[in-house]
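Example (one chain per record):
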Amino acid sequence: MKLKMRWCSLLLAGILVLGVALGALADDVTVYHYWTSTNWRASFVEALGLAQDELAAAGLDVKIDERIVEHEDYKTKITLLIQQEGTSPDLFSYWEGARTQFLADAGRLYDLSDYWAEHDVDTVLPASMKDAATYVVNGQEGIYNIPFVAHSAVVAYNPKIFAEAGVKPPKTWDEFLAVCDAIKALSTTTKPIYPLFTGVKYRWPAQFWFDYLLLRTAGFEFREALMRGEESYTDYRVVRAFQMWADLLKKEYFLPGAAAYDWQEVLTFFLNGQGAMYLMGDWVFGDLKGMGLEPGVDYDYFEFPMIEPDVPQGLVGPIDGFCMPALSPNKKDAFEVLDQLLTDPVQELYAPAKGGLSVTRTAKPDFDVVMAKEVPMVANSPFYAFNYDLATPPPVADVGLNAFVELWNNPDDYINILVKVQEKIGQENLFGE
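Predicted structure:
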């Protein structure tokens, strides 16, 4: 049975009366996030400004204290901050999926089920968002992460390179390989042009290739079972996906030296006309637009190509949301901030600026011609799967991400790499069975 929050207890009322009598100000609501990209942070700060104005207009003395940590450091720092009183924020941005499950299982997160019910969040967010926010902890369902913005991984491409090569966005795997060959043929010693590029300095950008190759060949159910530890990484279906990926690497379609770049640094190759296609989350559109590129002219996208016609062609991507630590010192005011993050003005401002889709039922962001195509694409997708490091427990994801980078460096060794992954998962009991 869910525990009901008692906001109107006599004790709380007494504290509030005393606070007013003493002229005390409400404590700040500390909000941590990892959106360090210039346009991301600027738009989020602006969104928080809207939220702050609405709180003031409602007569609420609630102050939002924005804190930011660089993306890669955030994954470690935020888990440390929420573990003790005195350092825990009131809210923090986090990824829906296995990472949230991991913290919820550890007792680090506050169950927001009562907040959801008492604030009628069902009328604001569609059922699919509630499904994403709901986790089973100790055998009981609870809500531990309020969705804020949704993303899809797609293939961003350079229309000018496509025009020069005389190719169109591919729909099938054979067409995709033909496009890669045509673009590679444009390359010269003085100006190399790479059909595919990414940066794997921090490992995670590589995962989208594994996600889509496996989903497009083995299907959603098998992939989900693998993520739960019910299937083996040495299964022929996983081997096939790795082999296809290794073949792309051995054909030298990819930008060499990918381990030297992070996901944003490789955008230089897009800008200078040396990189044609980039499998990345749609947040890349916010960065490209922020660099002064024109949507639909300087960049566009297509869905990852179909490989097996009888396998449903779903989408992969993360949902960013906000969690409340169990040790949040100012839960009452943090609930008010959560309310504002789900208002239409905040959603309509932030989603298109970051490059993503709003999560509420009624928001109508003013999307550009590229982002506007995403709305029906997501609506018509047969399924939506979290990317690898959000779909499987963090200890397992860590092993997998290492394997993806190892494949990048040793594509001929793809079978042995998978054998080592399976052995390590079993030896260290990473699924906790």
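Caption: DSSP finds 20 helices and 14 strands in the chain.
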